[in-house]
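Section: Multi-chain targets

For targets with more than one molecule, the full set of components is provided together so that the structure can be written out for the assembly as a whole rather than chain by chain. Components appear in the order listed by the source. The example entry contains two components.
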Amino acid sequence: MQHDIHILGLNHRTADVDVRECFSLKEQVSFEECVHNLGKSVDELLVLSTCNRVEILVVAPLGSGAGEKVIRCWAESSGRSPSELAPHVYHRRGLEAVEHLFQVAAGLDSMVLGEPQILGQLKQAYKNAVDKGQTKVVVNRLLHKAFSTAKRVRTETGIGTSAVSISYAAVELAKHIFGEMADKKAMLIGAGEMAELAATHLVGAGVKSLSVVNRTYSRAEELAARFKGRPLAFAELIDRLPEVDIVISSTGSPEPIIRARDIKDVLKKRKYKPMFFIDIAVPRDIDPDINSLDNVYLYDIDDLKDVVEENKAQRATEAEKAREIIRSESEKFGLWLKSLDLQPTIVDLLGQGEALARKELRRTLKRLGPDCPQEVQAAVEKLALSLAHKLYHQPLQFLKRRSQEEDGGERFLDLARRMFDLDGEVVPPEAHLDRKPAAKE
Amino acid sequence: MDSAELALYAALALYLVGSGGHICGIFTGKHRPNTFGGIASGAGFACHTVSLALRLFANPSLALASGEFYLSLFSWSLLLVLFVLWVRLKLSFLGLIATPLAFIILLGSLSVSSARLPLPPSLAGLFFGLHIGTLFCSLGLMAMAGAAGAAYIKLERRIKSKEKLNGVWAALPSLDKLDNANRLAVTFGFPLYTLGLLSGFIWAGLTWKRYFSWDPKEITAVFIWLLFAFLFHQRVALGWRGRKTAWLAIWVFGLSLASMLGINFFVKTHHSFA
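Its structure, encoded as tokens over all components, is:
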């Protein structure tokens, strides 16, 4: 029986955040139960649900109407009607679905082009589906192919090499200055959202320690606790600066809080070891003149924005290369999928051959009598089975070649099944009536 | 051509190929040419080792008494020093300096083979070897300091002026690593240079009964030593780092190179290669 791959989904492009929230499928149990109840209409299932997208991957028999049925289950399990959901859902089938999945895995369909997190989420979704026994040969192969394609895209294109967020760009720059981050100390001045995001990236890059300075000490304590850092009083700021290598400032102060003259003393105290200042506050917190000092580097929000914009443009160029890779990989997967249609026929043909060989073997062994030596019996059995396999070798090779054709060699497959009577159909007596009668001699 | 010579020419060819690999690697920002360069330089180093061993075993007394052998030996040890630093600092970038330098020095040693060196008395051979060897080693380290310094200045300027760090710039090591390479090269290079000068004076004393003869090469070498001493002092004692030390390292290397190429080849002195 031939199967088709379906992907039904909604993402940041097709649905607003409130719609995505409504149909997020965070609680998948009722949805999966509903799909399970569809019985043979759905053969394999995988659900990926993140804050930006829901992707439902289904392998179903051709013509089973699986798409509509899954949408119904999805809407019902979210407590809504299918008509509310359907306008936001995209439905891809066959090779289009394969290509879409590969694009999702490689981050080409993400809000931030090329972002790597989605691959981890897809791996987790696949693990869940495997644990629940919802996957079989097609989804298993498809997902492994998606992971290897995403890896290929990452190694062969520069899609993930440049930073496309302000705080990530800042950390990347810090790496150009300091190299290893494991022995570097960082300080956050201000405890706003931007500071928090920068702290996440810094901690992710592996800084040795993080201190947080804020006018409201309790807020500094709160943020420091989240990153296992150290809170500091605002009055200590300048005294503590000689200890730190990276400073990220994002306060709401109307005037600069770090001036060039302060930094001259700080540098002397730290024997001119380099310092990197990232000023993401508007108006600026740090005197721009400090960038002219030796071994001091200052980037403000505009500098980082420029870096980010250039990187985004570069990613778009790399995405084109990535799409080429994905196209070629999905074509390869398509060929495998076609060859899969042949599998049942191969199994049936070889099974038929083996059954015939064993039947004949039994007769022959009976004729040889009970005194026939074991070695002779084994040799005859080997002969019969290998003869059966070899007889089917050529027809199978022919079918394999034909299955690479555009239509998957469907007509030959059908012909072979009929020719070898693999489906046990009784040939009606009138089946040959359309043949011209043989000329009488 | 005997087998020692054959191995030496093979080493030269491999150093040249290795240099090409490293240069391609840094410009394309890809690992493969760099790895290829590393393999070729490693193979060149092996051939160089074979060549030295063959020469030594064929006629030990002749090899140890000839300036040509010492030069080849010390160009080999120079490469060894650079390889060790390359591995220790984990800077494939150093391959870019080490291999072309090995090529140039080995080629230089071939041209020196035609120079008539008044060797021995027995002790003089040792001091001559020490003089040449330590100076070439320190020249190699100066080259590393100079190249790391040049890369530091270029990268730092780009970071300061907030230009995009793509292509070659992205492939360069961080400022911290470049500064570290500079520090290591200066820390080891200066004592070697000092030892090289001292052994040269002793050798001159033993050979010509005159420690200092106001030869242009000797005057330049002392001037370079003063500059190098200043860099060493500021770096080690005062903890200077960054742009200033990078510039000083470039000057020290530039002057040494100019002295070697300009004076040894074009000026008539008792250091003349021609």
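Chain B touches chain A at residues 155, 159-160, 162, 164-166, 170, 173-177, 239-244 (CB under 8 Å).
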